[in-house]
């Protein structure tokens, strides 16, 4: 059976088609259930720090790790310094 389409092009089915408040309720219930079951992951401060570092590298570019400490000298010649 084909999905029925709304005039705006989105499907009538699935989590993304739900009301945002209903999505929050379902996600909240899932998180609470995972904690009660003991299967929810809780980040330590070291894990959170590492995740933030990796996110920064991905969003700002891996080649820019030392740019904050570098000076603004230009090297336009082909000979290495």
What would you note in describing this structure?
The protein is built from two helices and no strands. It starts with 19 loop residues before the first helix and ends in a 21-residue tail after the last helix. Helices cover 42% and strands 0% of the residues. This is KGG domain-containing protein.
What are the SSEs and their pairings?
Blueprint: H1 20-37, H2 45-60
User: What best-fitting shape do the alpha-carbon axes yield?
Assistant: flat
- Mean pLDDT, rounded to whole units? 75
Q: Secondary-structure element sequence?
A: HH
Count of alpha and pi helical runs: 2
Structural class computed from helices and strand pairing: mainly alpha
Largest sheet: none
**Rg over alpha carbons:** 24 Å
Proportion of residues in helical segments: 40-55%
In percent terms, what proportion of residues is strand?
Answer: under 5%
Which segments are poorly predicted (pLDDT under 50) over 5 or more consecutive residues?
68-73
Please give the alpha-carbon distance between the first and last residues.
67 Å
The tally of beta strands, per DSSP, is: 0
């Amino acid at each position: 059976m084909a999905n029925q389409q709304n005039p705006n092009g989105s499907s009538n089915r699935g989590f993304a088609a739900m009301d945002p408040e209903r999505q929050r309720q379902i996600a909240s219930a899932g998180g609470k259930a995972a904690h009660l079951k003991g299967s929810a992951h809780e980040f330590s401060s070291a894990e959170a720090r590492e995740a933030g570092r990796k996110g920064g590298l991905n969003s700002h570019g891996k080649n820019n790790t030392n740019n904050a400490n570098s000076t603004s000298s230009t090297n336009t010649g082909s000979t290495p310094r």
